[in-house]
From TrEMBL, chains A, B:
Lineage: Bacteria, Pseudomonadati, Bacteroidota, Flavobacteriia, Flavobacteriales
Source organism per UniProt: Postechiella marina
Domain (HTH crp-type) ranges: 148-219
Swiss-Prot/TrEMBL keywords: DNA-binding, Transcription, Transcription regulation
Name of the protein described by the UniProt record: Crp/Fnr family transcriptional regulator
Gene3D superfamilies, sorted: Jelly Rolls (2.60.120.10), Winged helix-like DNA-binding domain superfamily/Winged helix DNA-binding domain (1.10.10.10)
Length: 225, 225
DNA sequence: CTGTTGATATGATTTTGGTCATATTTCAAG
DNA sequence: CTTGAAATATGACCAAAATCATATCAACAG
């Protein structure tokens, strides 16, 4: 099993602020897991016993609405930590996590994280900064949900995905999402998401290669009204 | 000027975790302010030089959308801290803060808060917990915005305001909001908010006494579809 | 008391997007 | 290669909510 002290993934998250000793201790109690695409990492309402450090892959965090539809709230990618919020609040998770592609994660037990948070101010400040960023992102999402049209939100989602999760060699978005996932990100009906994507394609804003989507006209997408 | 060590307001926020020494130091550099209803506490994009501890009153945090409409993202009330997020992230504020009634606040300089965060793990863990709670609330708001109707959102807003901000002796909601504010909370047009409130009144779910709203049928509001 | 202003209210119309129905395509299992 | 299931696509229709147009009301300065 890999050693946290030597793992480069930690550069991308708050674990980088841990001391060598703390990392060695984590190394000793962490466990590595492989998670297949579509697999549930944790359920809404489940009590988490630790956090996941994502070594590879992407997952979606979603919440079931009262009307029975799933709403994707956030996507978490390689390098980021998953589950801090629940660990810190001590509450059960308010979101479900599902792998969007094959993932590799390290599971770090709750006690270890909590004691590091209480011992290492630099680490806890780093986590604070992560959460502050998340909070800002959430504010933006709320405003977009409330004030923008489905077309605008979908255009922005495509841009966001390209900018944050990267593209394949052929220029297509590296994350493969179903139309239902897109609908669930922008908070609309699956049919509406399909319709809007078809329209974007007709207008030359995007193209598709197999199941993958490629942004053809970034500025056009940004100007969607 | 009041002394933080003796102030009871701090019981309601993370400042309760500071030591007596730390509180005395804050007392020495804080400043008290009175803010009139409608006054702007800070603007979107403004760099904050500290946090506000709210001794009395309520304010709204809103963000200007690209379509020119203001979206209320959060309301902050007596006992809570205002501006932590910006101080922690080191970025300018992404929200505007406006007093909803006359307020009394204490302004605590940034440096003092930051150094306490880095020195006192209990304090920083408390702030972490606050932010974790906020993050969960934001998730819920996102899901509601995406999946519920204007009528449902407005009904929930009324219930939320009653439960969290209390009521006057006559049973009316203690926070006085304009129809425009209600629209801005649920993310709809002012006319729509007015229409829905009128409908609620016609159906006996709420009543009005002067400018104040009174919830007459809580269960009815909860069942709104 | 009157005129002005901003908030509230309501009607008429249009737009957006949800729902339901039905094809079509894709892909994997047999 | 067929068959069946799931994902994608598209049309028709309907409901929710935005927009535009007025009207009414409350508060207040002059």
């Amino acid at each position: 099993m890999g050693k946290c002290e030597q793992c480069i993934i930690k550069q991308f998250n708050a674990l980088k602020s841990l001391t060598k000793d703390e990392l060695i201790r984590i190394s000793g109690c962490k466990s590595s897991k492989k998670i297949k695409k579509g697999e549930v990492i944790f359920e809404e309402g489940e009590v988490l016993n630790g956090v996941y450090c994502i070594r590879d892959g992407i997952c979606k965090l979603s919440k079931l609405s009262e009307n029975g539809k799933d709403q994707i709230v956030k996507m978490v990618i390689k390098g980021q930590l998953l589950g801090q919020r629940s660990i810190i609040s001590g509450q059960s998770s308010n979101l479900q996590a599902v792998a969007l592609n094959d993932m590799e994660v390290c599971f770090i037990p709750k006690n270890e994280i909590i004691s590091d948070l209480q011992r290492n101010p630099k680490f806890s400040f780093d986590v604070l900064q992560d959460m502050a960023r998340d909070l800002k992102d959430s504010d933006d999402i709320i405003v977009n949900m409330a004030q923008k049209t489905v077309k605008q939100r979908l255009a922005e989602a495509l841009i966001y995905i390209q900018e944050n999760f990267g593209e394949n060699p052929d220029g297509t978005l590296s994350v493969l999402l179903s139309r239902e996932d897109y609908a669930s990100i922008v908070g609309t009906a699956t049919e509406s998401a399909i319709r809007v994507l078809s329209q974007f394609k007709r207008e030359g804003l995007i193209s598709t290669i197999g199941k993958f989507i490629k942004i053809e006209n970034l500025n056009g997408l940004k100007r969607v009204e």
